[in-house]
Specification:
This protein has helices spanning about 1-15, 20-35, 40-50, 70-80, 85-100, 105-120, 125-135, 145-160, 165-175, 180-190, 195-210, 215-220, 250-260, 265-270, 280-290, 300-310, 315-325. The chain starts with a helix and ends with a helix. Helix 1 packs antiparallel against helix 2, helix 4 runs antiparallel to helix 5 and helix 6 packs parallel to helix 8. With about 325 residues, the protein is mainly alpha-helical.
């Protein structure tokens, strides 16, 4: 927090010294990003609205010299999501951002953000129609056309439709190193074998997370174990996992990583401490518990030592021994 406050003051002082409107707007974007990361949404919005009201950088001379025009509107859309503003507010800011895209390809990149938002909001027909519009005039093999396989996959998955292997294959062949391909592989693997109840809960949680509702996403997964297990996400109020819980253990790993992304290391520790029946996942969880030392939790040396004694040849044993040797 102190680092953020220091950076905020530095950027504010720097902005006051700059005469170049385009450069000033770019620094304001950085300042707004810091404020968003701090949870200062109203303060960030105030900074961003200064950019959107700045006629100088919207002039013909400067309009495309800086990306601040587009980025300010995309960040305002993000704030709208994080502060539970109506869906049309999110879409409005993203549509407005398109007018500041440098070329047609960038405009369609923003359109794909709208497709993703509509999908996560459960507006599948609207998302499908928007995606169809995006693909008009796109040649097979173009960047936008290749990315569209991911969004088609996502729309189908969220509706529990039988997924075509061809969509995943097209992604792997077309953009093998892409984050979109990695995300599709993750979704394909983690949802495989889920029963209807697990799939419903996971997809709901996934949508919530991508709408920046992290706590609700994790609560949704927790309630699979026991509808009464969650009163809040404070560690002192969380019940132990029921002994007879039969939930897909992959979901616990997913929730643990989501908690870690939130920097809720206590909550990540709670999930990684689940009594995994899978030999692979139990070793992986012990490894992750040991790594949490770096993130603010204490390494349980006894836990690691006990695991190594019982599993000397486990696939994660070499990494665990290395961690122990460094402490």
């Amino acid at each position: 927090r102190d680092h953020y406050d220091l950076a905020t003051r530095a950027y504010e002082a720097y902005i006051a010294m700059i005469d170049d409107p385009a450069k000033s707007a770019e620094i304001q974007i950085k300042l707004a990003t810091i404020l968003i990361n701090q949870g200062g949404y109203s303060e960030a919005a105030a900074v961003l609205l200064e950019i959107t009201a700045n006629e100088a950088i919207q002039s013909r001379q400067l309009r495309f010299r800086t990306r601040a025009n587009r980025l300010a509107r995309e960040l305002l859309a993000e704030i709208a999501m994080k502060t539970d503003q109506p869906e049309h507010e999110v879409v409005k800011w993203l549509e407005d951002a398109k007018s500041f895209a440098i070329n047609r390809n960038e405009q369609k990149e923003v359109d794909l953000k709208i497709v993703h938002f509509l999908t996560m909001s459960g507006k599948y027909e609207q998302a499908r129609d928007k995606l169809r519009q995006v693909l008009e005039g796109e040649s097979s093999g173009s960047q936008i056309h290749n990315q569209s396989y991911y969004y088609s996959f996502l729309i189908e998955l969220m509706q529990h439709k039988t997924l075509s292997d061809s969509l995943l294959t097209e992604l792997i062949v077309s953009i093998p190193g892409s984050d979109l391909t990695s995300e599709t592989l993750f979704l394909s693997i983690v949802t495989k074998g889920m029963n209807s109840n697990e799939l419903d809960s996971f997809l709901q949680a996934y949508r919530l997370k991508h709408l920046y509702k992290d706590n609700e996403a994790i609560e949704t997964i927790l309630k699979l174990f026991n509808p009464e297990i969650v009163t809040s996400l404070e560690i002192g109020t969380l019940s132990p996992f029921p002994d007879d819980s039969q939930v897909n253990e992959d979901l616990i790993i997913v929730a643990a990583f989501w908690a870690k992304e939130m920097m809720r290391y206590d909550l990540a520790q709670y999930f990684f401490s689940y009594p995994f029946q899978s030999d692979l996942l139990s070793g992986f969880a012990v490894l992750k518990l040991s790594e949490l030392k770096k993130e603010g939790a204490d390494l349980d040396r006894q836990l690691v030592t006990t695991f190594l004694q019982a599993n000397p040849t486990h696939v994660f044993s070499p990494q665990l021994r290395l961690l122990l040797s460094r402490k």
